[in-house]
Amino acid sequence: MCTVRCHIQVEVENGEVVWVQGNPHTGMDGALCPRGAAGIALLKDDERPHGPMIRDGRRGEGKWRRVTWEEAFGHVAAKLTEITAKYGSRSILFSDRGGPFPDLHQAFVRALGTPNYCNHDVSCARNTNHAALSVFGFGRKGLSYDLKNARHVVLQTRNIMEAVNVKEVKDLTAAMDKGCRLSVIDVRSTITATKAHDFFLVKPGTDYAFNLAILHTLIKDQLHDREYVDKYVKDFDRLALFVEPYTPAWAEQETGVPARRMVELAGRLAEAAPAIIWHPGWNTARYRDSFYVSRTAYLINVILGAVGAKGGLPLVAKAGDVGHPGLKSLTGLFPKPEEKRADGVGWKYPHLDAGPGVLNQALEAARTGDPYPVKAYLCYRHDPLTALPDPDAVRQALDEMDLLVSMTFSWSDTAWYSDVILPLSTYFERESIIAQKDGLKPYFFVRQRAVEPRYDTKAEWEIFTGILNQLGVKGWDFQSIEDIWRYQLQDTGFTAEALSETGTIPLTDKPQYKDRASLKFKTLSGQVEVINDKWEKAGHPSLKPYEPPQAPPAGTFRLIFGRCALHTQGHTVNNPLLNEAMPENELWIHTRAAAGLGLADGDLVRVSNNSHSSEAHSSEPHSAEIRAKVTDIIHPECVFMIHGFGHKLPVETRAYGKGAADHELMTEGLTKWSPAGGGLNMQENFVRVSKV
Ligand SMILES: Nc1nc2c(c(=O)[nH]1)N[C@H]1C(S)=C(S)[C@@H](COP(=O)(O)OP(=O)(O)OC[C@H]3O[C@@H](n4cnc5c(=O)[nH]c(N)nc54)[C@H](O)[C@@H]3O)O[C@H]1N2
Ligand SMILES: Nc1nc2c(c(=O)[nH]1)N[C@H]1C(S)=C(S)[C@@H](COP(=O)(O)OP(=O)(O)OC[C@H]3O[C@@H](n4cnc5c(=O)[nH]c(N)nc54)[C@H](O)[C@@H]3O)O[C@H]1N2
Ligand SMILES: [Mo]
Fold it and tell me: Does ligand 1 come within 6 angstroms of the Cβ of 137?
């Protein structure tokens, strides 16, 4: 139901799923969020693709021919062969929604002979990930959030109670029961904010100023952990010098938060340190300087000694750290392609992580043919027409493709626009490969098939195998999922039976806190790096002077987006249960701003984008109708809506025409990104609002 993939346990009677709950064996204690509970409604929903389809008529026209799997695989393989003969295998692009099973996807992509594997992360956490890389030399998942043992948690751009990971919410509330303090920094009051001891309503886009003032205060008042800093931090003096002018009094002018409150927060953090967590953010694809907001969040944790601390951000343990060999890599079955990546990662952008690349740049390459043509696009569990800003620009890139394939279990704008739909079974009806989860207690886990597919759908390993077999690719010899599991486990000393009872193989029973006296970082210097030479060489200063956000042009509001507990991104709006609970989104607007426009709560309003610059190449003006939620608890400079609504596909009767789509209101979206952090700037957009 959600990309968080909380562990579930499924009860089956007579081949039917009758109950779903949080997996009691993995700390979920039976708990689920509303979306988890609505899984059975998804399984039984007939408004999803029922079998493989090939497009008849024009793209997006919605005329389909139902075919057999053999014909579908044959068609995809023939097209790929044709495209590869003409443009080389590098002209194939694959993208997915990240997650714990990339090994299978990357093996598939390598087997196709292309370097162009991307995931969704330009629109999600790339800025946070690169911030971690630039400071620690490992990505954001190299640290865990030890919420359970924390004494003070600061959530900045992180709505943990609504943008849910159930285990995290449970751990945080348990810690709060034991006296942990919660501080929330947001541009509106969320459910999380209502539970906080301190809530800071900031002006949108000024978090960097907030963080610089906190660093300033911690250092000036000598509240930081000097011993830790001396031991681990390179160039601390330069940080101290850099933040000197960024006083709380200065930051008050930028953020609107009283200086006194920032000083108070710094003091409280120092009291609770090192058992503190300043969250570096999850979806940080928001502003020009979001990378720097995450970087400074990490640096606050660092100078308070929280990185590596119990109750702070401990370094994760891997299988090897607890004396176990890891899973055998499927990707390793095929050689790494030598071609350079279409998105420029590794050569044009040497500082960015080549793992998931930057999808917006790969699509730009498709649009322009530079550095080379990209002609086939395989989307796995990913809906770029909804997940990326500015669908007009995305469509222009898709129009350059000679083949567009969507592997999905629901309808989506991308599926509707595709040439071929290879329908995935829902997660109840398919198995995954085995995944390895690093953390305080590393473990292996797997998704098992609970019931047989209701429609003519397949698991991902079956789909990839079908395509590779049709292409005649050598080296992929698996006949069954058990074959794959056996291969993955061969060095570990475990068999797949060990997974069958609980879905997991724990590799240790005790949390593995690394010795805080001998932490190892993966940077070139082996230390925490305030100044990262790789970024400096690429032209991105590590300590970037603050620039205020652009003020909304007269008569406009900054468009802010986010999540709610009842829906996942764009794909649950048509779920029968969740649709009933929340059929449409609303436009949050401040009471004063609403009064100026003559709006009352519940009025229907038109939201339109009008921020075209002269060099706009792609975007058409868009507008949408949505109900206004007039409230005092949002910053007056912005309006807010939940992402994922405004569906226009006739095959989704429940979601059809309800609410507005934020991503359509983001102009020039693909080219507005931050090469320093690799994230899109999805909140650098302004909209007009008027009464309908
Ligand atoms: N229920 C549910 N849970 C989910 C998901 C889902 O779709 N549904 N998706 C999962 C995924 S993929 C992700 S990435 C995470 C996302 O998790 P989060 O990033 O925590 O979720 P969001 O709601 O996108 O954004 C968090 C908050 O940032 C605030 N914000 C916006 N602009 C600013 C700003 O300038 N400054 C500050 N300080 N705050 C700002 C928004 O008001 C919002 O409340 O959630 C995960 N969990
Ligand atoms: N404007 C705007 N853009 C955003 C965001 C936003 O808030 N506003 N949020 C961003 C974030 S944080 C993210 S992570 C991306 C997400 O972007 P996506 O990952 O594209 O979004 P989803 O809707 O989660 O999933 C995409 C498709 O995968 C299909 N699918 C196939 N199998 C499965 C499965 O087993 N489980 C699930 N859940 N789906 C499956 C779904 O049917 C759906 O069509 O979007 C980003 N883009
Ligand atoms: Mo995300």
Answer: no
Query: What value does the CA radius of gyration of the chain take, rounded to a whole number of Å?
Result: 25
**Among residues of the chain, what percentage have pLDDT more than 70?**
99
Q: What is the pLDDT of residues 14-27, one digit of tens each?
A: 999 999 999 998 88
Give yes or no for a contact between 559 and 666, defined as CB atoms under 8 angstroms apart.
yes
Take residue 366 and report the two structure tokens written for it.
């498709």
pLDDT digits over 629-664, tens only?
A: 999 999 999 999 999 999 999 999 999 999 999 999
**Which residues lie across from 11 on neighbouring strands?**
19
pLDDT computed for residue 305 by the predictor: 98
> Can you tell me which atom of ligand 1 is nearest the CA of 566?
1
Ligand 2 mean position to 386 CA, how many Å?
A: 8
In short, whether 396's Cβ falls inside 6 Å of ligand 1 is no
Q: Which of 686, 616, 669 is nearest to 388 (CA)?
A: 669
Residue 667 reports pLDDT greater than 90:
no
Nearest partner of 119 among 355, 335, 326, judged by Cα:
355
| 186 C-alpha to ligand 1 centroid (Å) | 10
97 lines ligand 2 (CB under 6 A): yes
CA-to-CA separations, 657 to 155, 244, 568, 584, 606, in angstroms, rounded: 34, 52, 18, 9, 14
Write the DSSP symbol of residue 307: B
Count of CB atoms situated within 10 Å of the CB of 141: 14
Q: Is 1 in the pocket of ligand 2 (CB under 6 A)?
A: yes
Nearest one of 306, 4, 255, 304 to 125, comparing CA atoms: 4
Q: CA 213, CA 296: separation in Å to the nearest integer?
A: 10
Q: What is this structure's pTM?
A: 0.98
Residue with the smallest CA separation from ligand 2 atom 2 is 663
pLDDT in tens, 437-463: 999 999 999 999 999 999 999 999 999
> Which atom of ligand 2 is least distant from the CA of 3?
38
| pLDDT tens-digit series, residues 46-76 | 999 999 999 999 999 999 999 999 999 999 9
Cα 559 to Cα 186, 610, 643, 682, 684: the distances in Å are 14, 12, 11, 9, 8
Q: What is the pLDDT of residue 358?
A: 98
For residue 382, the ligand closest to its alpha carbon is 2
Tokens at 9, concatenated? 């346990």
Kindly give, in sequence order, each residue whose CB lies less than 8 Å from that of residue 543, ignoring residues fewer than 6 positions away. 238, 239, 242, 530, 531
388 CA distance to ligand 2 middle (Å): 10
Residue among 386, 422, 645 to mutate when testing ligand 2 (max atoms within 8 A of CB)? 386
pLDDT of residue 611: 54
**Does residue 563 line the site of ligand 1, with CB under 6 A?**
yes
Cα 385 to ligand 1 centroid, rounded to whole Å: 20
CA–CA gap between residue 33 and residue 332 (Å, rounded): 37
Provide, rounded to the nearest whole percent, the portion of the chain with pLDDT above 90. Answer: 97
Residue 122: nearest ligand to its CA? Answer: 2
State the average pLDDT over residues 16-45: 94
Determine if ligand 1 sits within 6 Å of the CB of residue 575. no
Kindly give the number of the ligand 1 atom that is closest to the alpha carbon of 162.
1
Q: Is the shortest distance between the CB of 360 and ligand 2 below 6 Å?
A: no
Q: Is the CB of 205 under 6 A from ligand 1?
A: yes
| Range of lowest pLDDT (225-239, 357-371, 608-622) | 608-622
Asked if residue 246 has its Cβ within 6 Å of ligand 2, the reply is no
At which residue do the structure tokens 């119990």 appear? 310
Mean pLDDT across the chain:
96
